Amino acid sequence: QVQLVESGGGLVQAGGSLRLSCAVSGRTFSSYTMGWLRQANGKEREFVAAINWSDGRTYHADSVKGRFTISKDNARNTVYLQMSNLKPEDTAVYYCAADPTGGVSFWQFQGQGTQVTVSS
């Protein structure tokens, strides 16, 4: 099992920035891909960004490219999502997730989520 605990959400004005953190613990996860998903009211959960824990390769959804950056700190076992130039459409609950296959679609483990609200 892998435990994921998100923090850093909140209310921000459009154009502002936030940094989400995800503390990772549990079994060995060096081969995992860690990611961020989000779910807005009435919509399906969608992929935002991912990073491979072993080689650091990153992936970002087209809707956030150039505005969001995923990163990790191996020493702290923490994954970050730096969000800049936020838009009202970024409002959602953001979930930290882990794909044990090393891919970017089998998000077997997910945290409880943190709310991000962007006001216009």
Average pLDDT, rounded to a whole number, is: 96
Tell me the fraction of residues in β-strands, as a range.
over 45%
The shape, in one word, is globular
Subunit arrangement of the protein: single chain
- Total number of helices: 0
Low-confidence stretches: none
Describe the 3D structure.
- The structure is a single chain.
- This protein has 120 residues and is mainly beta.
- 0% of the residues lie in helices and 53% in strands.
- The protein contains no helices and eleven strands.
- Strands 2, 4, 5, 6, 9, 10 and 11 form a seven-stranded mixed β-sheet that branches. A four-stranded antiparallel β-sheet has the order 1-3-8-7, with no helix packed on it.
- Strand 5 and strand 6 form a beta hairpin.
- The protein is globular, with a radius of gyration of 13 Å.
- It starts with a strand and ends with a strand.
List keywords for this structure.
4-stranded antiparallel beta sheet, 11 strands
What's the topology here?
Layout: E1 2-7, E2 10-13, E3 18-26, E4 33-39, E5 46-52, E6 58-60, E7 68-73, E8 78-83, E9 92-99, E10 109-110, E11 114-119
Parallel strand pairs: 2-11
Antiparallel strand pairs: 1-3, 3-8, 4-5, 4-9, 5-6, 7-8, 9-10, 9-11
In short:
This protein has strands spanning 2-7, 10-13, 18-26, 33-39, 46-52, 58-60, 68-73, 78-83, 92-99, 109-110, 114-119. It has 120 residues and is an all-beta fold. Strand 5 (46-52) and strand 6 (58-60) form a beta hairpin.
